[in-house]
Amino acid sequence: MKFFFIPVIIAVVFANLVGCSAKTGPADAYKNETPQQIYREGKEELKDKNFGESIKRFEALDVQYPFGEETEWAQLYLIYAYYMKEEYTMCVSAADRYIRLHPISPYVDYAYYMKGVADYYQNLGVLERMFTIDLATRDLTQMQKSYRDFKELVILFPNSKYAPSAQQQLIYLRNMMATHELHVAQYYYDRKAYVAAANRASDVIAHYQGAPAVVDALVVLVKSYRQLGLTKEEQETLKVLQYNYPDKRV
What we know:
Elements: H1 2-23, H2 35-47, H3 51-64, H4 69-84, H5 88-101, H6 108-121, H7 126-130, H8 141-156, H9 163-190, H10 194-207, H11 213-228, H12 231-244
């Protein structure tokens, strides 16, 4: 008997969940309220840090009244609400949508900035947010996206109030990517793949001038050339290292 009873219960619960979801979708929620009421209450929920409820209200406003003045503001507030709720993928989507719909808005620079921040945090799991972990050892796909976001902001809106912060983020992310490449170079060197190590170290030196990782990349390059028996290249690289960083020893 119980083998038939459990699936029936699950089916009923699932049906109820679907029914509830359909009843509370953005197209049907708050239908008895004016757009001004929906917007005002959404802002209040946001102020009270009830991010889930504010998201529901702003989404409902966007669906039911797509061309209202309040809706444009709601689309902007959605970016922040998703971010605060740690729904970073949705935050990026909301920012992209705002940029697409309102490219000449005086607040579009905010959308670019939040997109960069959200792309950065998509790379972090719960443990990374709680503890100090070397992020340069992880896959940096999201950080590379974040770098492009901030770079786009700085290029398009050099006078934006968010530009100085974005510029600092660019320096941090660039250093992080350089350190990541250095880790890869050291990984190859430790496994005696000296050609691959030299290539990665050379990439760090060529593409990340000024990053702290460049110093150790030069060290890896010198050691890799030494292991490969490339005496001329080793001595030339050693001269560069000693000239720029006289205290560094190989």
